[in-house]
């Protein structure tokens, strides 16, 4: 086997193994910031193990949709993770236009999660599904505005080429990276249902979005959903960190350093945001997303005038 | 480099368009003042002249420090409620601002083919003027109207630094003094209104009286 496949396997291994750690770090930092000791940072691993061992029970009256949707959701998120390059490692699936495939893999995963939630027939899950669909609708332009403009600037349309081709010889690129990182961060908060959009800790069915959709799942199905959501969080974190590689001038050692520093500091930053902000009213969330879209539009404007 | 600060200025316009809090407006005014100061410092990097530091420093003191602190003081003293009370939905407002920014960019590209100008600062300054006007049009609170006026003023300032990079300093300082006096007078007027009427919203003005 050649080196490329090894690199790809290694990067997917990194994502699979570090995903629960990232979520655990966020929870640990959040507990520290609010003055609690908090659960240990490896707690998500324990929870995943516990769910893995448990028996799956499906509600009466559910069809095959709710049986297959956790698996499909998980698999599509994994494929999206395979597309993503981690550090200097080239991903297994990499071609011109994989950015678009990446976005729609997440779209399909979300579609099946929504279908699974609707299939159970509980009104709570239906409500969560409708909210998820609405916010996903608003979140999609943000992704295309920010990554589309990066792709335009660099002239490539695959993640690996895009992330390795942005050079900092132009002062515009620094401001571009800063603005892009703001919009990607806000996108990540939306997509992963974190604090200003959705509170992952509440168990009030009326206020949550993502957690309410998996209320009726148990055992291995819940394991798949939880693991997929951890992986999704890490994927967005890696997307955010990847924007800062040009500051390390693409030397492999510096990229590893940037990755590790970004991994820890981003989890701390996410925890800080979750500590100091409260959940927005559901009515105001489209406004927040439109604001992020406006930032994405600014990216396009910068691109237009910095060619 | 001017473009970088102009883009950041543009971000503050977006934030002004979505926020619901009066305090955020004041913070944004301080940030805009700081950004304008940086913008004026850039030409000084090439040829430093101790005399020309006076204008940026005055702008920083007046726009970045004194006016925000003064408005904050008024808000505390008059016990202004923290929501801005818009007359239209914030989403429509933001869409209006985005549309304006896009249109001014298109307009300034067209203009730049006729005369020589920096596109990004020109367009951002122009859209800042419009955003200020929108704030005055679509908000009920008088204190927010003052903030809208100041956003408009910042836009005019940005525009003037681009169009005429070298205005005589006395004129700039005169404009500064004018602005300061206007805000000061508005504070006094708001105090008077407070002692006569219960609230200060423009909705009180839609009834005629003898």
* SS field, number of helical segments of chain B: 7
Q: What number of domains of chain A?
A: 1
Give the topology string of chain A: H per helix, E per strand. Answer: HHHHHHHHHHH
End-to-end separation of chain A in angstroms reads: 41 Å
Q: Overall pLDDT of chain A, averaged?
A: 87
The outline of chain A comes out as globular
Strand content of chain B: under 5%
Rg of chain B, rounded, reads 18 Å
Q: Give a quick account of the main beta sheet of chain B: strands, pairing sense, barrel closure.
A: none
Number of strand elements of chain A: 0
Largest interface: A-B, 20 and 23 residues
- The beta-strand count of chain B equals 0
Distance between the termini of chain B: 57 Å
The residue fraction in helices of chain A comes out at: over 70%
Order of helices and strands of chain B: HHHHHHH
Key attributes of the depicted protein:
heterodimer, A: 307 residues, mainly alpha, 72% helix, 0% strand, B: 210 residues, 7 helices, 74% helix
Structural topology:
The complex is a heterodimer of chains A (307) and B (210).
Chain A: H1 3-33, H2 43-53, H3 64-83, H4 98-120, H5 123-154, H6 159-165, H7 171-191, H8 210-213, H9 219-242, H10 252-276, H11 285-306
Helix pairs in contact in A: 1-9, 1-10, 2-9, 3-4, 3-9, 4-5, 5-7, 5-11, 7-9, 7-11, 9-10
Chain B: H1 2-18, H2 22-41, H3 54-78, H4 90-112, H5 119-138, H6 142-163, H7 169-196
